[in-house]
Amino acid sequence: MDIAQWLRGLGLERYIKTFCDAEITSEILPELTEADLRELGLPLGPRKAVLKAIHALAAPITPVAVNANGPADYAKPSIPSDAERRQLTVMFVDLVGSTALASGRDPEELRDLLQAYHNTVVGEIDRFEGHIAKFLGDGVLAYFGWPRAHEDEAERAVRAGLRVTKAVASLTEPGGAALAARVGIATGLVVVGELIGEGEARERAVIGETPNLAARLQDLAKPSDVVIAESTRRLLGEAFTYRDLGTVPLKGFPELVQAWLVIGEGAAESRFEARHGLATTALVGRNEELALLLDRWERAKEREGQIVLLGGEAGIGKSRLVRALRDQVARVPHTPLSHFCSPFHTNTALYPVVGLLERAAAIRREDASDEQLDKLEAMLALGADDVHESAPVLADLLAIPTGERYPPLALSPHQKKERTFQALLEQIQGLAARQPVLAVYEDVHWADPTMLEFLDRLVDEVQRLPILMIVTFRPEFIPRWTGHGHVTALFLSRLGRRQGAAVVDRITGGKTLPQEVLEQILAKTDGVPLFVEELTKAVVESGLLKDHGSRYELIGPLPPLAIPTTLQDSLMARLDRLAPVKEVAQIAACIGREFGHDLLRLVTALDEHALQHALNDLLAAELIFRRGVPPNVGYSFKHALVQDIAHESLLKSKRQQIHARIAAALEQHYPARAEAEPETIALHLTEGGLAGKAVDYWLRAGRIAAGRSANLEAITHLTRGLEALRSNPQGPERDRQELALQTAIGGPLIAIHGYTAPQLGTAFSRAHALCYELDDTGALFSTLSGKFIFHFVRGDFAAMQSLVAEAQRAAERTSDTALELAVHRLAALTAMHAGEFLTARSEFETILSRYQPEAHRPPPVHYVHDPKASALPYLAIVLWVLGYPEQAQRTSRAASQYAMELNQTNLTAHVQVYGGAALAELMGNVAAVKAHAESIIDLADQNSLNYWRESGLILRGWAMAQEGNVEGGLALMRLSLNERNRLGASWYQVRYLWMLAATYLHSGDHDNGVAALAEAKVLSARSDEHMWEAELACIDGELHRIRGAPADEVEGYLQTALKVAQSQSAKSFELRAAMSLARLWRDQGRIADARCLLGSVYGWFTEGFETPDLRSAKALMVELSRS
């Protein structure tokens, strides 16, 4: 056997010279011991690798066949007894040209060759803790991520693949030709661990397309190539360099598949840089921590050496904070020294130092030995005048042959280590003597023992030098340097809610996410920046959202957000570390983020001692937290995403059984909780395959949530109830359940999506039909009101009239006074829409006179249909139009008082928009409009009332323009008007467009004023709305007058406005038209006509003489009387 070739196969080619100098032959090799290898100077990691390979050589050879267990020395790790769902990275290795190798070859010789090949492949996969699934002749199938996951399985698989191709290439067949392997790798969700087959053929299978994809990619690979799927590439970042192979057809896959060729290691210095690249989002929520680091840097520059121990869980932002510090001090002359520990080199002596030296000296593997040595000496000269002492020692550390330049190191292993430490310390001291040093040691929880020993020495030296030393680590590492005076311990905590939202905002580029999406992201990520970033990216790329420029909008209902593929391995690794008690964690995860001790005991059926032991293990691993004291002990998962991964790793069938047991336990042992939290029982029944039984619980949960104005939650509960209803057999009982659900969901849908949402129309139409199928006249109150409002806001006048007639017929058939009031409400709104203000007033006042709270106030879920809550704000508008501004204001105050009494957010917004801001705008009270607008927007933002928010923004824009910010106000009005158009809102849109046109008119932008007015007229005609007809004609006349139209043409518009207002008894509109016409006549010299017209209209009013319109009329009358 060729010793050099054997060492290359192990990736230990740097020790070829050592073995040759010691005259180690293939005969002596099996006799080497741990002590022998230590004497040769091999560090711990290479010693273990050599001994393991020697053991493999000594093992008996077994024939290789399809489904064989593989090399005899390979022992499979402990396998879970149950199948699981999990993300898996699958590797398929194939020996190139195996058919040709077997041709004409002696079977025993072929066996030995394949055994050597298998041993080589297994050794490399084992190095990265992959799992050998099976041997398929000359093929090897391996899993990364099962039976135990690591946080970087894709990277492990690719590193193993690269080493496999290199190691196999070092093997030769007896004829001297080199062997070659090719590798395919793919990542995806699978079911793994399912037992299939019988007898000796029984095995644990992986079910899913991922293994097939890996095998097909291997077919695509050329000799010594590693080809990976797009799913794997996304997880790797810039850890490697790649060649895009484009989209390729693969057998068994209906669509083209993106493939990548892995070229080699990437240029990224650190895991953080490989993941994020050089461009990162701005640092959020770490100002105090960054200030502390900068303070320690300032001290270090004054030769008060400092050390900061920077701890925190994975993804909390340690590396990001260090990057921010580097950016801050970049312009200050200093020497940066960056060391990166690696999970793949925990037993490679001084691995972070070796990496630093190779990067600093720009040493490449393909460089000749002399060139490597030259580069090392040049780099060392930066910190020392004489490098002859340190160069040979550090060259040995880097496995650089020194040839004749330096004599061999005649040192024992201990002496060599001491000389290495001394050389490194002297180099750091020399660099610090020239300028301050920023030395960073990242991920020290992965440091090898020798590295930690060196850090012990360095800690003592730092305090006398201008050095800031930062050591980052995770909680499982206990730093041993905290007792020193120049050492500061800094442990990063999670971000707060506002800071988490800021991270989301940075990831979306400032585009607003729907509130419910933002809330779910923040709830699931628990303030861990990495989690926030990755989940936000996953949501944006998920297809759940539509990009509207400045914001995203949900395309459909929001499902529970899936765990990003970039976090799957990391989260699963946390769970797999506790394999013996993982099932308890999975059951707890089914209960929820928080779970009680007693309920868990009921569901697991474990005895108290066994359960407590399992919980203690979970507590010790910090997967869960404990609160309270016995017997009232509760627990919660540290991270929502850990709970998610534990829950989702269960097979659906087993998960269903657990949820059913939880539901039964809650119903039987916790009746009070079932009453207070019906959604909890509903969830477990649904997940437990008992959806039909869950319907009534979902209905109760929806009603409770709606009563608390938790509208998003109400929609979710009621929608799930409708979904669960499909499990029940068709019939009257199912129809009754559906009617209750469809009527209950209307109010929350209005609050969140507005009156024009298509799903609202669907809900009320279905409820309307069910009322007749069930002959349920009682439910007609809410269904007719709801269906009417849907058409009213969309401007469908014909549908409105039809529904009024239907409601009248239904009321005549019953003695239901609530239905009678609904008829008056519908009639009042229809009359107001038609400009029949006297009729509208009569209908609204009838409602108020007959309204009795105990008989007519609906339950909270149906407050949107409350006739009094609708009548008061609209009556205020009608009273003003009819010429009673003081009565209008009193009614407005009554509406506000009633809204406070009901304390329902959607009704509060309704009252503030119409009874408050709209009335204030009609009366010209800019300050009041502004105050109401801000209140509306705040209320909408706090409660996701998107429909009302647009009205608030229009009113804010109008107030801005009146106060002088004309350009900003008009832009905001136009933007929000467009959004209402997109929503399909017609009601009050004509008035908002009138406000826009009037603002353009007063700002001198007559062309845009004409365009806005034209839009208003088109909409008014299309919806057959006459409420603002007089106002539109009046402003039309003003625009024509300003644009120089003939006087008779202008007068025609104003006369139309006057006549329409008179026909509608709209005295306030009549007064405005009269003032415009009086000014026109004044300018024509028709003073008497003007005085007579305006005097007759003004003389009608009996109140409101201090309002702007009446004061303007009075002033104009005085002017005319003096002419």
UniProtKB/TrEMBL annotation:
GO molecular function list: adenylate cyclase activity; ATP binding
Classification of source organism: Bacteria, Pseudomonadati, Pseudomonadota, Alphaproteobacteria, Hyphomicrobiales
Keyword vocabulary terms for this entry: ATP-binding, Nucleotide-binding
Domain SAM: 1-42
Protein's organism: Bradyrhizobium yuanmingense
GO biological process: cyclic nucleotide biosynthetic process; intracellular signal transduction
Pfam families linked: AAA_16 (PF13191), Guanylate_cyc (PF00211), SAM_1 (PF00536)
An annotated GO cellular component: cytoplasm
Transferase in keyword set: no
Protein name: Predicted ATPase
Ranges of residues in domain Guanylate cyclase: 89-218
